[in-house]
Amino acid sequence: MAPLLTRGRVSAALLASLALTLLVALLVTLGQSFAAPDTRQPAPPAARLKEHPALRALPPRLAWAWERPEDLRWLPADAGVAWLHSRILLQGEQALVMPRAQPMQVRPETVLVPVVHVDASVRQPPALTAPQRQRIVAQLLRAAAQAPSRVVQLDFEVRLSQRAFLADVVRAARQALPADVALSITALASWCASDTWLQGLPADEIVPMAFRMSRDSAVLRARLQTQDGRFTAEGCGRAIGSATDEPLAGLRAPRHYVFSPRPWTPAAWAAHPFDTAPVAAD
Known about the structure:
The chain is an alpha/beta fold. The protein has helices at residues 2-34, 53-56, 130-145, 163-176, 217-226, 266-271, and strands at residues 61-65, 70-71, 79-91, 94-99, 104-105, 112-120, 151-156, 182-188, 205-209, 239-243, 255-259.
């Protein structure tokens, strides 16, 4: 009888332990059901973060001032100037830097954004080396040091085979620039339409150029009309570029950059269509 009594005691202990375990599990489940729901949203992708503070401080309209004498003292108070700071020619293993040589006049209070323009030689295709990338980044740093606006712009229209190099330049530049300096880059219109390879790059602003669109012009213009005059790809909706000799009515973005193939005049500025209607944060 003793062995049976021992087995009975063990069975009772096991039953008590199982009952306690079930009770704890039940209490935990009830506690979770009455807890406040988790309302946290997934973090947004980098291209949809809030606009850089330096970009928010820019005026809604900026004139691109290229390499020629310009007198822009007549610009209205709500306009700024994105001026050619320097040009870099990539050819072979070289990266030739040519600072601006032409004078430009503006009022002291005019907001200025320096632009570094990069050309890739056709006759001597560039090797696209690390030293060439470093030369471009160094020039962007020099330009940024002269920018009270804390914005610097890179203008580099690359071919398909050169895209990886431009992407490396953008990454290296964003890493090298101070955090309070915004990096703006120009883009072919097609890069912000069906060919969205720029997505994910750490540029603070992408300016799709809705002019000189070559063979894609008719298709892109029709697409813009169906999209309320906006580029809707991620990162491409806050700014837009246009030209006085290719006006396209209905272009909409909070910030407009405008190119003129001839020296700027008050009449050319007044005649250009602007729609700086705000858009929802991308």
